[in-house]
Amino acid sequence: MNRKAISLLSGGLDSVLATRIIKSQGIEVVGLHFTSPFKSRREKERGVQALKSADELGIRLIIKEKDLDFIEIIKNPKHGYGKNMNPCIDCRIYMLKIAKAIMEEEGADFVITGEVLGQRPMSQRRDTINIIEKESGLKGLILRPLSAIYFPETIPEQEGIIDRSKLFNISGRSRSTQYELVKEFGLKEFGCPGGGCLLTEPVFSRRLKDLFKHDIDFNMKDVKLLSIGRHFRLDENTKVIIGRNKMENEMLSMFWSEGYNLVTPSGFTGPIGLIKGKYDNDAFILAANIIYHFSKSTDKDRISVEIKNKGDMIFHAEKRLLDIEKIII
């Protein structure tokens, strides 16, 4: 009888090895990769890496997006946050619940993860691993090939689907054993170890808290914008984002659509800005002055900017002194 497993495949070292170990026991493996607006640039590269890893491993890859349903978990995590806004335990439960649904759809027998006991301080302790397994609805069906010997036998081991003697007893943060396995298996396609979740970063977390507080009707575009540029809170309803470099200016231009105002310098060189919120003169004056503050110009008494909304207009603002530290998010 053909046996099948669903593997959480980030594209990182541990998940690739875990998949390879189980595949070597004659199990058909389907990879499951999650994309998210909370991934750093490095972690987004792992999305591409996951595709390369799946190709090298010879497995099919399913990609799922963490969307607004995941936002609700971030707002009110049952098991709390890590150092900043990272709900690591609830995030893991969320992913495994989706893995369980896919396992059932695919007619698979169990789920594989690359977890290593003691490697991560919040989600890979023995007590939290037990909580995650129970609340995901996968008790006895999550196989962790790299640390399996430290845990009770899973159902696929008990049923003889998996040979426990070919699993490992790796623990802690060192990856020396993993790199030995890489050589043994001849693997080339895997990402470097290390986290990449923006929810662990103080600045991003502060911006996310600000979004939750001030913008009830935010969308995924607002969430994605949190990782771009400098952010300024003008009042309860209005925020300005300006680019820090050419690439971010171009990204802000691409994000511009109805509901946002695009602000560009006129007659001087400076960053591009997006206004989310009130469409009035006070917002335009402050946005123009923020853009001017971060420009290389110092000689203007009146600042001109081009405002794009449903139509285009040139807006002229008096130069003001700004206390940037009070409004930056």
Structural account:
This protein is of the alpha/beta class. It has helices spanning 13-23, 41-57, 68-75, 88-106, 126-136, 155-158, 176-185, 202-214, 220-225, 246-255, 281-293, 324-327, and strands at residues 4-8, 28-35, 60-65, 110-112, 142-143, 230-235, 238-242, 260-266, 273-276, 302-308, 312-318. It has a six-stranded antiparallel β-sheet with strand order 6-7-9-8-10-11, with helices on both faces. Strand 4 (110-112), helix 5 and strand 5 form a beta-alpha-beta unit. Helix 1 packs across helix 7 and helix 4 packs across helix 5 (126-136). The longest helix is centred in the N-terminal third of the chain and has 19 residues, at 88-106.
Note the main attributes of this structure.
2 domains; 329 residues
Our measurement of the CA-to-CA distance between the termini, rounded to an integer number of angstroms, reads 57 Å
- Number of separate strands: 11
CATH topology of the largest domain: Rossmann fold
What gyration radius follows from the Cα positions, in whole Å? 24 Å
What's the mean pLDDT score?
A: 90
For the record, the count of structural domains works out to: 2
Output the helix-strand order: EHEHEHHEHEHHHHEEHEEHEEH
According to CATH, the homologous superfamily of the largest domain is HUPs
The CATH architecture of the largest domain can be named as: 3-Layer(aba) Sandwich
DSSP strand content: 15-25%
Strand order within the widest sheet? 6-7-9-8-10-11
Q: Quaternary state, please?
A: single chain
> What is the highest CATH level, the class of the largest domain?
Alpha Beta
Low-pLDDT regions:
none
Helix content: 25-40%
Number of helices: 12
Structural class estimated from helices and strands: alpha/beta
Q: How would you describe the shape?
A: elongated
**Major sheet size, sense and barrel closure:** 6 strands, antiparallel
